[in-house]
Specification:
Low-confidence stretches: none
Order of helices and strands: HHEHHHE
Number of strands: 2
Radius of gyration: 14 Å
Distance between the termini: 27 Å
Shape: globular
């Protein structure tokens, strides 16, 4: 079932969201200071490409640096990506078949706003990293 959902997701919105994260990652990796943010964008881009079967968990060892990094991320790229998720989610919720995919888009908004200090894990082991 996950594979079918991921393929439909890829066609409807996953590929375009992945391209948005890829663009954000490339732009952030231009400077040395932005490389950690670019890596986070690539990681979440892959998650946005195949979201079904995975979830995010907070890392307890993230610390204050990830909090400061999340504020910088929010200013640099987070709100653009969150707007993309909102627009795509609303567009997908227009049809009955698209409602689960729209909800999946809305679930990706917190990750797109604050990606640092989170880890992407398979849904069958969300507590394995704690």
């Amino acid at each position: 079932m996950r594979t079918i959902l991921n393929v439909i997701w890829l066609i409807l919105s996953g590929f375009w969201l992945f391209l948005g994260y890829l663009l954000a990652g490339v732009l952030l990796c231009i400077t040395i200071i932005g490389i950690p943010f670019g890596i986070a964008a690539f990681r979440i881009g892959v998650y946005a490409l195949w979201p079904f079967g995975y979830t995010t968990v907070e890392r307890r060892d993230a610390g204050a640096a990830s909090c400061v990094g999340n504020v910088l991320w929010l200013v640099l790229a987070g709100w653009w990506l969150a707007i993309a998720h909102i627009v795509t989610g609303i567009a997908l919720c227009v049809t009955i078949i698209g409602i689960p995919f729209g909800i999946a888009n809305f679930k990706l908004i917190p990750v797109s706003l604050f990606p640092l200090g989170r880890e992407i894990v398979p849904t069958d082991e969300p507590f394995a990293t704690r």
